[in-house]
Amino acid sequence: MRFLRAHAALTRELSSRLEALHELTLSDFDVLVQLYYAEGRRMRRIDLARSVLLTASGITRLLDGLEAGGYVAKERCDSDARVTYAVLTKAGVRKIEDARESHLADIEELFGSQFTREEREQLGELLGRLPLAHTAEACSE
Amino acid sequence: MRFLRAHAALTRELSSRLEALHELTLSDFDVLVQLYYAEGRRMRRIDLARSVLLTASGITRLLDGLEAGGYVAKERCDSDARVTYAVLTKAGVRKIEDARESHLADIEELFGSQFTREEREQLGELLGRLPLAHTAEACSE
DNA sequence: TAGCTATACTTGAGTTCGCAAGGATCATAG
DNA sequence: CTATGATCCTTGCGAACTCAAGTATAGCTA
User: Fold this and answer.
1) Nearest CB to A135 within list B5, B133, B141
2) How close does chain B come to A12, measured CA to CA in Å?
3) pLDDT value for B68
4) Distance (Å) of CA A46 to CA A31, A42, A51, B30, B85
């Protein structure tokens, strides 16, 4: 119960702040961050989907938006015509670097401030044990 | 990050199991549980909304569904004509008692099995500190 | 009593997703 | 070379929600 409530409250707040300041969804942000840390700042759409726990169709539509905004571009794969890469554009890099700052501050305010460093690590470890929660790539957000 | 991923993975799984077995959303279940433990098994719709962290309109539509299924009924309030109560029907009581069992088993499997009793308590305590997460009423689910 | 503001609820429009189905491409096995 | 099955992606449809606006009622104030 606490878990569900905490999530609902937290994401609602973070999401609305992100939206207000940067016109980004939490999912949008999530995708941009994944791309930002990816090799060559690009990823296969399917891997992107798995890493942010969306379905393939979810990613298609989400990227539609980011492509329209000019933050991400499509790129064909030479070795496999089925796959399309999502690449962060320069505007996308600027966007994420810009949004990161306020978003991290928000997280710190709402989330981090409640815990000591030690507790934070423990919380992370505990949550990391949950099944299926292992998709998150290296990244310390 | 872990928090978001863990939530996405967990709710997706729990939700689909609940849906498959009982044709209930996680939110539906949540609402039924709240009513089940409420005094007289009824609540003002607005209080219900706050306790499950939905908006007023969200509750209206969710209850539309549960009313259509015969699990909850509307009831007028004598002292204040603005408010409507949501009351659990007998069918609703049966439904929730039925669904509870498998749902708790699912939770135990996916969530509880990863932790010792002590860790579980600690996790609960940590999550409970998050701002806005205090709406959950007494109930040990 | 008349007016103002706050509260409870509903409804219309729009968003973000998931699922199922379909098209295209690859890889493998005869 | 062809058939089969898997993989990547998109699209139609529907579900769950939110926000904004509207209605009705309550309560307070002058």
Assistant:
1) B5
2) 10
3) 93
4) 12, 12, 9, 32, 46
